[in-house]
Amino acid sequence: MNWQAIETAPKGQEVIGYSSRTKHIYLIGWHSDAEEFLDMSTFREVPLLTHWMPLPEPPSESTDYKTANLGPGCI
């Protein structure tokens, strides 16, 4: 997966977005009423959103969470 210009981001799915102002990544999705991509956790505009990439595939259903290295206190 490579970063792509935000102008090429799909408007029908959630993707990972990058802000060159905050240097953070966000889960973003197109909001047709606002006519822009929004941070899906806050539904707010992301400042200087410049790049995007697709979400990775989710883990397989066979993942054994009891043996996964989640750190102390996670299970």
Keywords:
75 residues, 0% helix, 6-stranded antiparallel β-sheet, mainly beta
The count of helical stretches stands at: 0
What is the SS-derived class? mainly beta
Summarize the amount of helix as a percent range: under 10%
Shape: elongated
Strand content: 25-35%
DSSP, total strands: 6
Amino- and carboxy-terminal Cα gap: 31 Å
Strand order of the largest sheet: 1-6-2-3-4-5
Mean pLDDT: 89
Order of helices and strands: EEEEEE
How large is the radius of gyration? Answer: 15 Å
Unreliable sequence segments: none
Largest sheet: 6 strands, antiparallel
Please characterize this protein's 3D structure.
This protein has 75 residues and is mainly β. It has a domain at 4-53. The chain contains no helices and 6 strands. It has a 6-stranded antiparallel β-sheet with strand order 1-6-2-3-4-5, with no helix packed on it.
Topology:
Blueprint: E1 4-5, E2 15-19, E3 25-31, E4 36-39, E5 44-45, E6 49-53
Antiparallel strand pairs: 1-6, 2-3, 2-6, 3-4, 4-5
Write a concise synopsis of the structure shown:
The chain has about 80 residues and is mostly beta strands. It has strands at about 5, 15-20, 25-30, 35-40, 45, 50-55. The chain is elongated and about 45 Å long.
